[in-house]
């Protein structure tokens, strides 16, 4: 067991349900939602009541556990229920690598189960294991990331990458929390993160709980602050890291990376190994989730443009690896990531196969 304290956690596995903090209700209300079936879990993920790549991955495994429990109760074909559950969950949010990594880990865990009861037990135990392990992963990643920051650092972060996003301590926001614990963090610029406002609603909420100094800005103000020298480092999370180091993350991340490079500010991406996908060769191959146009047209139920206005609403964008100063993981830092470095890093950490030294994988800019 890790040293996970009884700290506040937004995900709780009861053994027969997944209890989540409904992130669509924050910051107005800390509402709990109990997911008793895989359909409940799939709906919660699709509606972003639970969100954030690692939290989505753990929730997906809980959904499969509930599906197999149902087959055990009804005497149904549990392997068919598992396959149908995988397909349902895979359709919810196609960009987050952790979701597919969670489905793979679950499938491997029950490969030799002899019946539905054993499979249900194994998956329930896996949910608890993943929740516990996420704490250790986040804390290790936070330590590596905080080591990159010097005293007095002013950080800019995008979207929400805290406990709400991982179910534990957080990734980029975990680095921020750890750096603050170590006395290295002076201030956090928080982008509101249109259209779902994860920064304004969730990151501000988490920073207030942690007592960390912060200022909320509109997304468009970030390049201005970078140009004015008011940011010492940009810290963001990830939803998928491709084999060459290209990063899919919340829409708006690419613009931050371009501005950070132009104004010579380090751009760090916090990503646990579960967010790396060696099967995705580069950023062009990452499926980018397109969400409901109403998310853009309405803010808290108020229309800000005519309902029939044409809208594009990609939930993520892709930052090329050559704009990433370093990837921060729970197993260490990957500076100036490229295909070879990532392949060798993953191979050294039990995920994938290494490549020859001469093969840099340095893609053309
Ligand atoms: C540790 S959360 C990682 C990642 O997930 C968020 O996306 P969403 O709010 O749509 O689930 C955001 O891109 C974070 O950087």
UniProtKB/TrEMBL annotation:
<dbReference type="InterPro" id="IPR011559">
    <property type="entry name" value="Initiation_fac_2B_a/b/d"/>
</dbReference>
<feature type="binding site">
    <location>
        <begin position="51"/>
        <end position="53"/>
    </location>
    <ligand>
        <name>substrate</name>
    </ligand>
</feature>
<dbReference type="InterPro" id="IPR027363">
    <property type="entry name" value="M1Pi_N"/>
</dbReference>
<dbReference type="InterPro" id="IPR005251">
    <property type="entry name" value="IF-M1Pi"/>
</dbReference>
<dbReference type="GO" id="GO:0019509">
    <property type="term" value="P:L-methionine salvage from methylthioadenosine"/>
</dbReference>
<keyword id="KW-0648">Protein biosynthesis</keyword>
<feature type="site" description="Transition state stabilizer">
    <location>
        <position position="159"/>
    </location>
</feature>
<protein>
    <recommendedName>
        <fullName>Methylthioribose-1-phosphate isomerase</fullName>
        <ecNumber>5.3.1.23</ecNumber>
    </recommendedName>
</protein>
<dbReference type="InterPro" id="IPR000649">
    <property type="entry name" value="IF-2B-related"/>
</dbReference>
<dbReference type="Pfam" id="PF01008">
    <property type="entry name" value="IF-2B"/>
</dbReference>
<feature type="binding site">
    <location>
        <position position="93"/>
    </location>
    <ligand>
        <name>substrate</name>
    </ligand>
</feature>
<dbReference type="InterPro" id="IPR042529">
    <property type="entry name" value="IF_2B-like_C"/>
</dbReference>
<keyword id="KW-0396">Initiation factor</keyword>
<keyword id="KW-0413">Isomerase</keyword>
<dbReference type="GO" id="GO:0003743">
    <property type="term" value="F:translation initiation factor activity"/>
</dbReference>
<comment type="pathway">
    <text>Amino-acid biosynthesis; L-methionine biosynthesis via salvage pathway; L-methionine from S-methyl-5-thio-alpha-D-ribose 1-phosphate: step 1/6.</text>
</comment>
<keyword id="KW-0028">Amino-acid biosynthesis</keyword>
<feature type="active site" description="Proton donor">
    <location>
        <position position="239"/>
    </location>
</feature>
<feature type="binding site">
    <location>
        <position position="198"/>
    </location>
    <ligand>
        <name>substrate</name>
    </ligand>
</feature>
<dbReference type="InterPro" id="IPR037171">
    <property type="entry name" value="NagB/RpiA_transferase-like"/>
</dbReference>
<comment type="function">
    <text>Catalyzes the interconversion of methylthioribose-1-phosphate (MTR-1-P) into methylthioribulose-1-phosphate (MTRu-1-P).</text>
</comment>
<feature type="binding site">
    <location>
        <begin position="249"/>
        <end position="250"/>
    </location>
    <ligand>
        <name>substrate</name>
    </ligand>
</feature>
<keyword id="KW-0486">Methionine biosynthesis</keyword>
<comment type="similarity">
    <text>Belongs to the EIF-2B alpha/beta/delta subunits family. MtnA subfamily.</text>
</comment>
<dbReference type="GO" id="GO:0046523">
    <property type="term" value="F:S-methyl-5-thioribose-1-phosphate isomerase activity"/>
</dbReference>
